[in-house]
Structures are given as C-alpha cells and as structure tokens.
Amino acid sequence: IMFHSTLALPLLLIAVSSNLAMAIKKEKRAPQTLSRGWGDEITWVQTYEEGLYQAKKSNKPLMVIHHLEDCQYCQALKKAFAENEEVQEMAQNNFIMLNLMHETTDKNLSPDGQYVPRIMFIDPSLTVRADITGRYSNRLYAYEPQDIPFLIENMKKALRLIQTEL
User: Fold this and answer.
1) What is the CATH T-level fold of the domain 48-159, as seen in this structure?
2) Domain boundaries in the chain?
3) Which among 60, 82, 86, 105 is least surrounded, fewest beta carbons within 10 Å?
4) What pLDDT shows up at residue 6?
C-alpha cells in the first residue's frame, strides 16, 4: 500500500505541473490584436499619439510600420520581420512600436508619399528621422523582406542617434 501512494504523488505532481505549464503557455500565446502578426512578444502602442507620448517618456525611439492587410509586399515583409530574432528582440526592448493600417494626420510620416510598407523612426525629441531611410531612392522608407539586415542597421542607427544628439 505504501508503494502505491509514493508512486501516485509524483504522477499527480507531473499532471498538475504539465497542466499549469500548458495554461501558462496558453496565457502567453493569447493572440495580441495590436501586433497584427508583426510580433506577439512585442508591446505595441495603439495610436501614433500614444507612441509619441511613450517615446518621449521612455527616451526610446518610436518605430512606425505602415502597412495594409491586402498588400502582398507588406505580408512578405511582416513574415521576415516576425521571423527575425534580432529584429524582434530589439523591437521589444529598445523601441516603442506601432504598426498602422491607416494614415495619420502627421504629414511628416509621408514625406515622399503614402505607399506601404514603409517604416519610419521618430526619436524621443519627437523628430521624424528623415535621415534613416531604406535602400530605394523612389520610396525612401520602403523595405523588402531581403532588407531585414539593412533594417537592423537602421534600428541601431536610430538608437545611436539618441545617444549622440539628446
């Protein structure tokens, strides 16, 4: 009889802890509506105004991703963005993050047109960084999936500029 109870206890503990682990995993994996697939571990702000406020308050740059749901280029960039660990980690820890599916009233965010996808950086002094651009002269803030390494360099540049200028 003693043998049964000592065996039963560890089995019970395993059952409880695996249920708990599954509950925690489920909790963590709750679909985050604001991420829209760009990265569920990232804390996203809801509006441009909230992004500006958080950037100023936290002294972190704001990264704004303009995209549309039915744009194949946006979908391709989103996939590359979401799958890149370095991008995700930097976005999560060093930036205030916003992804928008509509234009803001701030004309500074569309200096060369309202194309998508486009990614722009705003520093904590609330200056839109017109000097942090992608590789295309006709669409300055456009990135393609293969440009992720270039985007990483631009993210680092946005962080460096805060240190040197503010």
Assistant:
1) Glutaredoxin (3.40.30)
2) 48-159
3) 105
4) 54
